[in-house]
Amino acid sequence: MPTSLAANANVALYASMIVYTLAMLAFTWHVAARAPKVAESKVAAESSVAERALVGAGAGSGAPVSAERRSPTTYAAGPGFEESLRSRQRGSIALMLTYLATALLVASVLMRGIAVSRPPWGNMFEFATAASAAVGVAYSALARRNRWEWLGVFIVTPILLVLGLSLAVLYTEAGELMPALKSYWLGIHVSVAFLAVAFFTLAFAVGLLYLVRVRREEKPPARPGFMESLPSAAALERTAYSLNMVGFILWTFTLIAGAIWAKQAWGAYWQWDPKEVWTFVIWTVYAAYMHGRATAGVDPRKSMYIALAGYAAVIINFTLVNLVSTFVGMHNYSGMS
């Protein structure tokens, strides 16, 4: 029974990758339909100029101006953009595929856990798949309500990359835990850690888009593209901050829970193990971001660069700290020989 469940978990994992690939293509299809057309943009600009002229003429002559001319157009994304029906339909298809792929990935993680009768994140392969599932669930939960179809390709593509690398490089057969990991803290400490990583991943993608968007707002391109269809730079920055704040709170709990577990396992809250150090480095960088973001007069772009550095530290913590012998300490739980 455990063997068949582990095999079925692998089948579900491969199936989720196939569907995620279809979702990635569908999101790309959606992006192509979402980009504003040049002709439409010119017409909108000319209409806006004519409208301002009419409003000015009406105000100067005392003639009444109709409410239709006075009221600005409301758009779903950036100014001057209204999403087409075709774009919405493609975005909906991409989201449905993402929901299905995420469900398959969650099923794979659950079957792996049942097969080994423990939380399914006892090695790097299991952590990578569980963290990818957490990213998929977080995006799926937030995308429909916030109309984040525009973000999908930037989330699904990294998920696919991580799953592919997990199978090609990190794969470990289902088996028993190392003695040091046999604790209820594994289910608490590590699960909160990959939830934090999920929110940091969403924030990283939004943060990159914010930096591009703010440049495009400062120097509008001659030909509008996908970036002009996104929410304003200010809205993207607020979204990234909110996601980073949730991730930071979860990471704070991760740091504290890890110290408590270390006390139980090794007799000390802190032993300068590389994993402990990098966990604290990540917390410190994101704390610096939060401080910069809350400080008046600090350019939001500078704060965002700090947040991106924090995510780079997250990647280093998961990869180099676990795989490079120079960093390996008491947390050598990659599961790789």
Structure report:
- With 337 residues, the chain is an all-alpha fold.
- It folds into two domains: 2-31 and 86-323, no CATH class; 37-80.
- 73% of the residues lie in helices and 0% in strands.
- The protein has helices spanning 2-34, 38-61, 67-70, 85-116, 124-146, 152-170, 185-218, 233-266, 274-294, 300-318, 320-323.
- It is flat.
- The two termini are 26 Å apart.
- Residues 38-76 have low confidence and may be disordered.
Write a brief structural summary.
This is C-type cytochrome biogenesis protein CcsB. This protein has 337 residues and is an all-alpha fold. The chain contains eleven helices and no strands.
Summarize the helices and strands and which ones pair or pack.
Elements: H1 2-34, H2 38-61, H3 67-70, H4 85-116, H5 124-146, H6 152-170, H7 185-218, H8 233-266, H9 274-294, H10 300-318, H11 320-323
User: Which class of secondary structure composition applies to the elements?
Assistant: mainly alpha
Distance between the termini: 26 Å
Strand content: under 5%
**Quick check: average pLDDT?**
82
Strand element count: 0
Total count of domains? 2
Largest sheet: none
Uncertain residue ranges: 38-76
User: What general form does the structure show?
Assistant: flat
* Percentage of residues in helical conformation: over 70%
* Number of contiguous helices: 11
Gyration radius from CA atoms, angstroms:
24 Å
Order of helices and strands: HHHHHHHHHHH
Organism: Terrabacter terrigena
Membrane topology: Multi-pass membrane protein
Protein name: C-type cytochrome biogenesis protein CcsB
InterPro entries: Cyt_c_assembly, Cyt_c_biogenesis_CcsA, Cyt_c_biogenesis_CcsA/CcmC
